[in-house]
Amino acid sequence: MVRGVIQYGNEKSRKHIINATRNTIAPIPQKVLNELEDKLKQIEGTTTPQEKYNFLEKELIKLNKSRSKNVKKNKLGEETLNLMEERKKMLEKRKDNKENISIISKKIQSSIRIHRKSERLKVLREQIEKTGGIKKGLKELREYTQWIPNIKTKSKKKNEKLTTKRPSIAKVATDFYRKLYTNTDESIQTETGKEGYEEIPGILESEVIKAIKTQKSGKAPGDDKITNEILRESLIAISKCLTNLFNEIMTTEQIPIQWTKSTIVLLHKKGDKNEINNYRPICLMSNLYKVFSKIILGRITKQLEENQPREQAGFHADYSTIDHIHVVKQIIEKLNEFGQLYYMAFVDYNKAFDSLSHNYIWKTLENQGVDKKYIQIIKKNI
């Protein structure tokens, strides 16, 4: 009789990334901040906006790396490790310690459960104190990051099939969003000249400070890995340099090349996970770009708010859709009271924000009195 083992050569693909470490952040020493401020002063007025931005980005990345450290998660605890060391010694004389080994093994299992529960509660407590909720804590406690398992693709014969290879999944997603974002409507064109430009005030350092301070914590950064936390901690050192840089960008309309690139992450919304249409794209962009955008938004918000009708409650400051819901409920009650027939229509647009034509946005901004300079700057960032 011949007995053998058949081994298949198919390599297993990694379905997830294990989160075995926890990122800890150390405070930035004042000496380091002073050195950074001195370095940034040296490049004032000597370089182009792009070169200045490259230098600032490089220094912030270096600063971010120096203050962050990945610490291996202790999933067992000191008590468990001591018990395991004790059991290791017993195993050297297994025959004489069978009963004791069984007892200490149960203690080890119990100790692991207690430690894991304690660590879980500790993380949740920290996040509740920081953010007032447990969402960030649950994200931190997640053991691994799940990838998209497979996606449906259509062949030339229009037959659907599942693809599990990451390059193929990436291609399906790329083709889908390229088609979605391609503007095929040429019915309206906007002027690109500088006619009608008005003199706009320069960006103040106070605007930069306010924008950085109001950035949300715990948000994913762009490819540069510069977080909102590092911007806030280094605010005193970088605020003047950022103010000058933003004013140069406004004057020259030269946008740093880094702002035109972003990473798209897909989050499953609902329905079949194999359908690319059931994923919501999240765009990870540079936080420095978000600060600049917030300053521009702060300047044009008042103009936009004044042009919105009272009937629009959604996406309108100091308004709430609760008021509209209350009005609708009152109308329904009255119609029911008098026995009258009524109809209600609800419209749900597919990919509403993603499918907006940019040309219509520019024209609408212009019609609502937004200065052409701001519109041109926004265009440059698209």
Overview in brief:
Helices cover 50% and strands 9% of the residues.
Features:
382 residues; coiled coil; 13 helices; RT_dom; mainly alpha; Reverse transcriptase domain-containing protein; DNA/RNA_pol_sf; two-stranded antiparallel sheet; 8 strands
Structural features, described:
By secondary structure, this protein is mainly alpha-helical. It has two domains: 20-61 and 71-144, no CATH class; 151-182 and 189-380, no CATH class. It has helices at residues 30-42, 49-67, 78-91, 98-131, 135-141, 166-181, 205-213, 228-233, 235-252, 287-306, 321-337, 358-367, 372-380; strands spanning 16-18, 21-25, 68-72, 144-146, 151-154, 160-163, 263-268, 279-284. The strands form four sheets. The protein has a two-stranded antiparallel sheet. It has a two-stranded antiparallel ribbon with strand order 2-3. It has a two-stranded antiparallel sheet with strand order 5-6. The N and C termini lie far apart (71 Å). 13% of the residues are buried. Residues 8-18 have low confidence and may be disordered. Residues 248-382 form the Reverse transcriptase domain. This is Reverse transcriptase domain-containing protein. One of its GO terms (biological process) is DNA biosynthetic process. Keywords: Coiled coil. Residues 74-101 form a coiled coil.
Number of domains: 2
Which secondary-structure class do the elements indicate? mainly alpha
Beta content: 5-15%
Described by the principal axes of the CA atoms, the overall outline is extended
Biggest sheet character:
2 strands, antiparallel
Number of strands: 8
The whole-angstrom Rg is 29 Å
Pfam family, one: RVT_1
Protein name: Reverse transcriptase domain-containing protein
Domain Reverse transcriptase: 248-382
Keywords: Coiled coil
